[in-house]
Amino acid sequence: MFNESLPVSRLRSPFAKNVQRKLTSFPPPFESLFSRCLAHNDRTAIVDNIGSHSYANVLARSALLKAKLEPFLEEKSQQRIAFLCPNDSRYVVAQWACWLGGNVAVPLYREHPKPILEYYIRDSKSSAIVTVEEYADRLKPISKDLDLPVVVMDSKSPG
């Protein structure tokens, strides 16, 4: 298990200074993945149409999103969180944010019509929805119908 207490601010990312809590351990299924990210902080993890993203950057953004989600989730883990993001770094950030909280990520597909999206969210018993600005208008009516919070991720910028 990852026993060393590592302040997020040591991730060498401009996002890290905004995260107040420390990453002391990771959920067991993902311990190896996130521990390896810490070992490769400055290496490039993703290159997409937004820019180049280091492991530290992606992990710090995921920790910030996890913190934004926490007020909407109960104390227990293993809750399902539906997310609709484009195929860029924001997809990974949303997925990792779910995993960092010990929750289950439920990916949604942007081409599905509203009834299918609503079905997947309802059937999965999701507790929250994560999305980006460009998809928020599609998901807000569904979230209202299902009485679920929607967390809209920050802009496309890598920083």
TrEMBL record:
InterPro entries: AMP-dep_synth/lig_dom, ANL_N_sf. GO terms for molecular function: medium-chain fatty acid-CoA ligase activity. Residues 37-148 form the AMP-dependent synthetase/ligase domain. GO terms for biological process: fatty acid metabolic process. Belongs to the ATP-dependent AMP-binding enzyme family. This is AMP-dependent synthetase/ligase domain-containing protein. It comes from Ornithodoros moubata. The lineage of its organism: Eukaryota, Metazoa, Ecdysozoa, Arthropoda, Chelicerata.
